[in-house]
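Protocol step 4 of 5: obtain the predicted structure for the target chain.
Materials: sequence only (see below). No template structures provided, no constraints applied. The aim of this step is simply to have a reference model before the mutagenesis design in step 5. Sequence pasted as it appears in the construct record:
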Amino acid sequence: MEIPEPLRETVQQWVEAFDAADAGRLASLYAEDGIIFLPAGQRLQGREAIAKHYSAMLPQKERDKPRMTPRKFFFFPPIAHATATATGRHGEKHSVIDILSQQPDGSYLFACSSWTFK
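Step 4 output (structure tokens):
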């Protein structure tokens, strides 16, 4: 998976936080007003709502961890799009689209994520 240089730190932090089931750290990688759209149409906005969601959905056991294909990145500074497919703990398939936006310090945060059933 080739990750454009400006995104590498954010993506690596996301992977580490996800692997550690650290909901607060995952939420901190979203913009303060970041949004997640879930398959059933729910809209979560803000780090508090995102952290609460990840706290409820992160697996407690390695065997329950969703499997995700490597993301494909489409880098158009100051915006980046990332796409992937995930297989959930019950075998359901999801398309994942993330939009990352550049911050004033040059770093990138997740602005919006959308999970849909395939």
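Step 4 remarks: The longest helix spans residues 5-19. The beta strands are 30-37, 43-45, 67-68, 72-76, 79-87, 93-102, 108-117.
Proceed to step 5.
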